[in-house]
């Protein structure tokens, strides 16, 4: 499914744009492989499990009681659009992993959405201030089409890695491909080296 913004404005020369990307301006295209779920914050939970010392689950209110942080920067979609100078608010993934106590053998994360969608990430790509569980965009609650009430945000990778409607992070000692990775997308998805598809 795609909406306005998919074709966007003309490509510009801008050092913030990775190769092959164009600036979509303020338009944020809606792209999804699934039917958008109707989720209520009061029934949503976020879990961290797998190779952790303390498997943990937070409710909506518990998540909002944690120290919050903000991402300000750019996002990039594998379909070639980028949104520059945008912002998201939520909780750093570092905070959740610290609370759960990541075991030394953990090296990968499998993010799972309430729809069953999954995507895989090296642990190094969601730690060190690189990833968030986000519930607002530019000061407004995330809409369901954009992953609301809560999505994963991993802005330095192509945006399919930022799983919509996220509900679980599972720590693993080996890589397990997610939905798009099993269907030909790159396992990591770095926009700056154009890791769009397997073999790139």
UniProtKB/TrEMBL annotation:
Domain of life: Bacteria
Organism: Cellulomonas marina
Listed name of the protein: DMSO/TMAO reductase YedYZ, molybdopterin-dependent catalytic subunit
InterPro entries recorded: OxRdtase_Mopterin-bd_dom, OxRdtase_Mopterin-bd_sf
Residue intervals of the Oxidoreductase molybdopterin-binding domain: 36-180
SUPFAM superfamilies: Oxidoreductase molybdopterin-binding domain (SSF56524)
Stretches the record annotates as Disordered: 1-26
């Amino acid at each position: 499914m795609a909406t306005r913004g998919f074709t966007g404005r003309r490509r510009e020369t801008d050092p913030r744009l990775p190769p092959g990307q164009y600036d979509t301006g303020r338009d944020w295209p809606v792209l999804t492989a699934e039917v958008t779920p109707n989720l209520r914050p009061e029934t949503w939970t976020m879990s961290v499990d797998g190779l952790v010392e303390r498997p943990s689950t937070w409710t909506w209110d518990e998540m909002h009681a944690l120290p919050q942080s903000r991402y300000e920067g750019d996002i990039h979609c594998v379909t070639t659009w980028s949104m520059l100078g945008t912002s998201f608010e939520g909780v750093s993934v570092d905070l959740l992993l610290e609370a759960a106590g990541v075991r030394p053998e953990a090296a990968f994360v499998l993010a799972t959405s309430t729809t069953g969608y999954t995507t895989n990430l090296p642990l190094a790509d969601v730690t060190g201030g690189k990833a968030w569980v986000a519930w607002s965009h530019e000061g407004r609650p995330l809409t369901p089409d954009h992953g609301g009430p809560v999505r994963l945000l991993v802005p330095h990778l192509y945006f399919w890695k930022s799983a919509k409607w996220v509900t679980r992070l599972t720590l693993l000692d080996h890589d397990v491909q997610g939905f798009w990775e099993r269907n030909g997308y790159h396992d990591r998805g770095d926009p700056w080296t154009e890791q769009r598809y397997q073999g790139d």
